[in-house]
Write a structure and sequence with these properties.
The complex is a heterodimer of chains A (348) and B (148). Chain A has 9 helices and 9 strands. Chain A is an alpha+beta fold. Chain B is an all-alpha fold. Classes of the chains: A alpha+beta (348), B mainly alpha (148).
């Protein structure tokens, strides 16, 4: 068992690591290191890096994303980093990724470091309130246009073939469903009759093959991007589950009823679902065929429940006792069941 | 016990959110204390109904199994349904009720998968009753603060 580093110990080790990465830099300092919320599967810290290079004083706000104790998704760390690298500087705004470190000896666990995009909001519950709410249409245009850009992008041109597991267009749905069914099999703390019925429905009603193989962010929703008071989106975050697959998976996930933060029919708390789909189709050049999209919407609730039951298991087992896991387990599991009942037509 | 649990939790949650959280220097600690307050409010809601909803659901499931057993084609499943339908909750401890609820809901999954493969009108009637119970079960668990 690794003895946990204190924040000051973590800052000192981080400075040592950065000296190793920037051998020509002098006076390397890490200040203001503090933990922030940023996805439950990795610990997220912000800090300021200061140093001198060629006589010039430099300072930069950065983000450290470190694997937590007991992390079960080690192989995804490099994939997440590569996704940031691939999209940095494109039409999909992401923070600049700097260093990926798989060697645990520096900070006890593997980690990566990236730019901090400062001064913006991420809280999904605030975007539906003043002063943000008046820009709902503009947020929606940007949000689903960016998702359309991700769907349109060529994974090979982005250098992501070989980084992410390949999948054939007619196998996307089977792979994803098997993955999340297995997660529920392994982690459920109580039987899930609603989700089990949904899984059987999904197997009886397979969707048509993917129109193309796209990069799938896999958690693209209100809450995982940074926004401002003028309706602009500055960075897409939390690429922890990124993979290659059917672009409709991403569209359906963001449309899930559990993300209706305004507590009305608006997708993501922003615009009616048809409007979101229209923006996405225009930006991606793809079609959101209603049967296939409906399959992926039902799947989204299975995946959502997979996430919530896995979080509940980690919390219960003591592997990760971040309170956000307890909160999401309690609040989201029932909402996710309600969502899938609505998607299957049993709840109005 | 007095004060009542709901009153006690109201006071504690309010203290955490309105008084303690703003005094904390770390944004992460502030957020955690706020989450703790929200969790306590969910616990407040669940505490009041914890035994009642499980008793209600276990009875509903046993009634459903009694109705379904004659329709079921597989002898082993039919016997499990008959045995479960004849059962009762001897203890009102939440942990005991939860244990029997989990066993009954696991059996409900098996029954649902079985009747989906049957073609008789009686099977459709049982399937409809199962969906009705699944909707009722999500309503029993609904939390005021849930997003949907």
């Amino acid at each position: 068992m690794v003895e946990e580093l204190t924040v000051s110990g973590l800052a000192a080790n981080l400075a040592a690591y950065i000296r190793h990465r920037l051998p020509d830099a002098e006076g390397v300092e890490v200040t203001g290191l503090e933990r922030i919320f940023g996805g439950a599967s990795r610990e997220t810290y912000r800090f300021v890096l200061s140093y001198h290079l060629n006589g010039q004083a430099l300072s930069r706000p950065l983000i450290l994303r470190r694997d937590p104790p007991g992390s079960l998704i080690e192989t995804q760390r490099a994939v997440e980093f590569e996704a940031y690298r691939a999209f940095y500087g494109t039409a999909v705004p992401v923070p600049e990724p700097l260093w990926l470190e798989e060697d645990a000896h520096w900070l006890d666990y593997p980690f990566f470091i990236m730019q901090e995009v400062q001064g913006f909001e991420a809280n999904p519950q605030l975007i539906v309130l003043p002063p943000y709410a008046e820009h709902a249409q503009r947020f929606a245009e940007r949000k689903w246009t960016i998702l359309g850009e991700i769907a349109k992008a060529d994974p090979a041109a982005l250098g992501l073939i070989g980084v992410m597991e390949p999948v054939a267009p007619d196998q996307c749905w089977q792979r994803e469903l098997a993955h999340w069914e297995k997660a529920i099999d392994q982690d459920e703390l109580a039987p899930q009759p609603v989700i089990r019925a949904a899984i059987r429905w999904l197997r009886r009603n397979p969707p048509q093959p993917a129109q193309k193989i796209s990069v799938v962010h896999a958690d693209f929703r209100t809450g995982n991007f940074l926004y401002d008071t003028e309706g602009r989106i500055h960075a897409i975050l939390d690429w922890e589950m990124v993979h290659l697959g059917d672009p409709l998976e991403d569209l359906a996930w963001g449309l899930n009823p559990v993300w209706r933060w305004a507590h009305d029919e608006r997708a993501g708390g922003l615009v009616p679902q048809d409007e979101a789909i229209r923006i996405w189709e225009r930006a991606s050049g793809l079609r959101a065929m209603s049967d296939a999209l409906h399959w992926w919407e039902v799947f989204s609730s299975v995946k959502g429940q997979g996430i919530w039951v896995s979080g509940a298991k980690e919390f219960t087992d003591g592997k990760n006792q971040d309170l956000i896991l307890a909160l999401s387990s309690w609040l989201m599991q029932n909402s996710q069941d309600r969502a899938v009942l609505a998607e299957l037509g049993y709840l109005s | 016990m007095r004060p009542d649990v709901d009153r006690f939790i109201d006071v504690v949650a309010s203290y955490l959110m309105a008084q303690l959280a703003p005094t904390l220097a770390s944004q992460y600690d502030q957020s955690n204390v706020t989450i703790l307050a929200v969790l306590l409010m969910a616990v407040r809601e669940e505490f009041e109904r914890a035994a009642a909803r499980r008793v209600e659901e276990n009875r509903a499931l046993r009634r459903l199994f009694a109705e379904a057993a004659p329709v079921v084609q597989a002898p082993a499943l039919r016997q499990r349904l008959q045995e479960a339908a004849a059962g009762a909750d001897a203890s009102l401890l939440v942990s005991d009720l939860e244990r029997s609820n989990s066993a009954l809901r696991a059996l409900l999954i098996d029954l649902h998968a079985h009747v989906e493969d049957l073609t008789a009108p009686a099977a459709r009637r049982i399937e409809a009753a199962i969906w009705q119970e699944l909707v009722a079960s999500t309503e029993r668990r609904r939390l005021m603060m849930g997003p949907f």
